[in-house]
Specification:
Blueprint: E1 3-10, H1 17-21, E2 27-37, E3 40-48, H2 52-61, E4 65-73, E5 77-84, H3 89-97, E6 101-108, E7 111-118, H4 121-134, E8 139-145, H5 159-170, H6 182-189, H7 193-212
Antiparallel strand pairs: 1-7, 1-8, 2-3, 2-6, 3-5, 4-5, 6-7
Length: 223
């Protein structure tokens, strides 16, 4: 079964290391990523929180980057095309060796956050083993199977969050006025009110971040 993993990579082990660490107010979003051969990746990268002149100069000076091209300057948002040529062993392994797909990729400060679709759970395990063998960091924050019947994988919900939200909707918790109280809903799910509150809150956060693509979510909680 296809598996989605939320992972983090440290900036100092990946492409654009110098660009990220020298522009702490900038946020990088990879909007398209393709591996053309075994030693080069061509991404389209959206950058916000900086100016075109300074960012272009920074990118051109970054040793992991070649052929930087500014495609669009919208003032508060820049779109670049470039080649990544260094510190890309992890992404090459994911794309070429395991047949994975990078669904989302955001970089800021000292790390990258990725949402990756692997064709099997074994492909994810193989990637983790590859990084361990190479002395690279591959921090898995959350893993979930892609179940089309529920759709929770698409939005980064844990099973507990998904069940809490669906049960709340089915019992009218979000209706105005409400048809069920928090206490009654918690009893239905067999959990405490505090646990239910946490699941609903974190489930809402995951849905909003996925739908609106804001921030860099961490999906490490069991709730």
């Amino acid at each position: 079964m296809s598996t989605i993993a939320e992972v983090e990579l440290p900036a100092n082990e990946f492409a654009l290391r110098e660009a990220l660490t020298s522009n702490l107010d900038a946020e990088f979003e990879v909007v398209r990523l393709a591996a053309h051969d075994s030693d080069r990746v061509m991404p389209y990268v959206r950058v916000s929180g900086t100016e075109a002149s300074s960012m272009t100069e920074t990118l051109e000076a970054d040793p992991s980057v070649e052929n930087v091209e500014l495609l669009d300057d919208l003032g508060d948002e820049l779109l670049y095309r470039m080649n990544w040529v260094e510190n890309i062993r992890v992404i090459m392994h994911i794309l070429l060796d395991e047949g994975g797909t990078v669904m989302e990729m955001h970089g800021r400060d000292d790390r990258w956050h990725l949402r990756i679709l692997f064709p099997t759970r074994d492909a994810l395990s193989a990637t983790h083993e590859f990084c361990t063998d190479k002395g690279l960091t591959f921090s898995i924050k959350n893993i979930y199977d892609l179940k089309q019947s529920t759709g929770r994988g698409e939005f980064g919900l844990t099973e507990n969050q998904y069940n809490a939200l669906v049960t709340a909707v089915e019992h009218g918790y979000f209706d105005v006025p409400r048809d069920v109280t928090m206490s009654e809903l918690a009893a239905e799910l067999g959990v405490s009110q505090q646990a239910l509150s946490e699941r609903l809150r974190r489930g809402h956060k995951a849905l909003i971040e996925s739908a609106l693509r804001v921030g860099d979510a961490s999906f490490g909680s069991d709730y």
